[in-house]
Specification:
It is a single chain. The chain has six helices and two strands; from the N terminus they run αββααααα. It is mainly alpha-helical. The protein folds into two domains: about 150 residues, no CATH class; about 40 residues. Strands 1-2 form a two-stranded antiparallel sheet. Strand 1 and strand 2 form a beta hairpin. The longest helix has about 45 residues. The termini are far apart.
Length: about 250
């Protein structure tokens, strides 16, 4: 259960100790960026509307929320210096934590609520920075950034961009393959349907040829039937002539 002392510790931690530890952590970035000749350095403490600004430092109304450091690209571009910029906040919070802890252990500083809470949050930030993971927004912790430099030989932002590019290329290739396969299947189906229709229709795939053939058959049948009638009439006439003899003429 919370007692009055715990409430005092909570308020002191939120409004005093956390902002101090956050500034110590961000000052590591600030120091290394200065050493590496980074331009346009800007240390922002807190969030919300701006309370006041001094050169390269801006303090906002909700100073106890969080802070961050902005700077342009550093001059040295090799892995060592980029690894140093990632390790800077870990080093600064670690130095303060071990230094204050040593002073308390040697009774230079009294082990009161303020210093014990201060040491706790310094170690908390240092441990959080050391965990080599990607955060939910895709950004790496400093420990992860250092790991990518050592293990993969590239910065985390480059690695992330490369993986996104490879995933996009893979997706595009997959879509193209699926499109080609679907087109081929459609073409095969069309060909099969055409062959089946040709087989069912025989030679009726060409209406003009079929119509011409039909007209030719009709004319042939008509001509053949007309010739048969003539032949029958001729036969009848010849038979009648034979029976009548010379009686076909009456005069």
């Amino acid at each position: 259960m919370f007692n009055p002392t715990d409430w005092i510790r909570l308020i002191m931690a939120a409004l005093v100790i956390l902002p101090i530890v956050t500034v110590i952590r961000e000052s590591g970035y600030y120091l290394i960026a200065t050493l590496l000749r980074g331009k346009n350095k800007h240390l922002i403490i807190g969030s919300g509307p701006t309370l006041f600004t001094i050169p390269t430092i801006e303090v906002r109304r909700y100073f106890f929320m969080f802070s961050w450091m902005e700077y342009d690209e550093l001059k040295p571009r090799n892995r060592f210096w980029h690894g140093l910029i990632y390790a800077a906040p870990i080093i600064t919070t670690g130095l303060f934590a071990f230094s204050v802890n040593s002073l308390v252990l040697n009774e230079v500083l009294s082990p009161n609520i303020f210093w014990t809470t201060f040491i706790f949050y310094c170690f908390y930030y240092m441990l959080f920075d050391l965990i080599p993971v990607y955060l939910p927004d895709g950004q790496p912790t400093n420990g992860r950034a250092i790991f990518d430099l050592i293990w993969h030989g590239e910065r985390s932002d480059y690695k992330k961009a490369r993986l996104e590019r490879e995933a996009q290329e893979k997706e595009e290739n997959t879509n193209e393959e699926e499109g080609d396969r679907s087109n081929t299947e459609a073409q095969e189906e069309t060909k099969e349907n055409r062959d089946r229709d040709d087989e069912e229709r025989g030679d009726h795939t060409n209406p003009e040829s079929s119509q011409e053939k039909k007209q030719s058959n009709d004319e042939e049948n008509k001509q053949r039937s007309y010739t048969d009638a003539q032949e029958e009439t001729k036969d009848n006439r010849d038979r009648d002539d034979k029976e009548r003899g010379d009686h076909t003429k009456f005069n």
